[in-house]
């Protein structure tokens, strides 16, 4: 049997492309986002009582990956990108039905221009991601102290971040520059490069689209240097 899903909304976030999005929620706590409710779900009744909860489960579609299909095994970055494991033993984005889930802090609910907007924190979702459901996080059932984390038992190691003179001067002129600098640092500290690049000499300059910015950086482990920031598209 086949079933169809209608998104209840979409994500607005600083992440304008897949590259550099944190691999799990909670790794970039300063990255704030919103769920913009749509259609029949855009109704004040759908969020009645939601602010009793500190966190929410966001169920969404990996919409940018759906056309590429999936395979039974994947290579998790946490295993260096070399070892294969079953797709159901991973949180890989290429899945049979392309469904993902993230637990995020609830920051508030507001109505703006006829839209119902749920503000969230520490998001790991690309801007425009379709949201298919929202559920409250229930601590007594969703938090399991004795749970085993397998190959992802510990949080990933991070690299040190330094900003060059031009990026600091650019951000100093932005009214939201302090928050943007914090988000850029938290995102890049995760080292978004492909797993096979890590632990090796790397002379490439990378670029990532965050907010409305094109952020360029280099990596000389254990330091990532933000070399330049410019308005995206310039």
TrEMBL record:
Under the heading PANTHER family, the entry gives: TRNA (ADENINE(37)-N6)-METHYLTRANSFERASE
Gene Ontology biological-process annotations? methylation
Which Pfam family, just one, is annotated for this protein? TrmO_C
Looking at the record, the residues that make up the TsaA-like domain are: 5-146
Point out the signal peptide segment.
none
Q: Which family does it belong to?
A: Belongs to the tRNA methyltransferase O family.
Q: Name one GO molecular function term.
A: tRNA (L-threonylcarbamoyladenosine(37)-C2) methyltransferase activity
Q: Which domain of life is it from?
A: Bacteria
For this protein, the record's InterPro entries field holds: TrmO-like_N (IPR023370), TrmO_C (IPR041369), UPF0066_cons_site (IPR023368), YaeB-like (IPR040372), YaeB-like_sf (IPR036413), YaeB_N_sf (IPR036414)
Give the enzyme's EC designation: 2.1.1.-
Transferase found in the keyword field: yes
- Which principal EC class is assigned to this enzyme? transferase
What is the species of this protein? Answer: Grimontia marina
Gene (UniProt)? tsaA_2
Q: Which UniProt keywords apply?
A: Methyltransferase, S-adenosyl-L-methionine, Transferase
Name used for this protein in its record: Putative tRNA (Adenine(37)-N6)-methyltransferase
């Amino acid at each position: 049997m086949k079933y169809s899903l209608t998104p209840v909304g979409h994500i607005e976030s600083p992440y304008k492309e897949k590259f550099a999005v944190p691999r799990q929620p909670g790794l970039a706590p300063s990255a704030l986002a919103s769920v913009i409710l749509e259609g029949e779900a855009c109704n004040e009744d759908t969020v009645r009582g939601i602010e009793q909860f500190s966190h929410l489960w966001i169920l969404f579609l990996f919409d940018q990956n759906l056309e590429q299909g999936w395979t039974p095994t994947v290579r998790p970055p946490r295993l260096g990108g070399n070892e294969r494991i079953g797709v159901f033993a991973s949180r890989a984005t290429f899945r049979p039905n392309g469904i993902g889930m993230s637990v995020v802090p609830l920051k508030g609910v507001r109505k703006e221009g006829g839209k119902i907007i749920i503000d969230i924190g520490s998001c790991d979702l690309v801007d425009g991601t379709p949201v298919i459901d929202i559920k409250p996080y229930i601590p007594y059932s969703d938090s399991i102290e004795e749970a085993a984390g397998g190959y992802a038992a510990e949080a990933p190691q991070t690299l040190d971040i330094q900003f060059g003179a031009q990026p600091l001067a650019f951000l100093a002129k932005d009214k939201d520059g302090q928050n943007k600098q914090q988000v850029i640092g938290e995102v890049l500290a995760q080292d978004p490069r492909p797993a096979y690049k890590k632990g090796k000499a790397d002379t490439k300059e990378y670029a990532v689209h965050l907010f409305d910015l094109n952020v360029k950086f280099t990596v000389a482990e254990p330091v990532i240097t933000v070399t330049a920031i410019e308005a995206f598209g310039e």
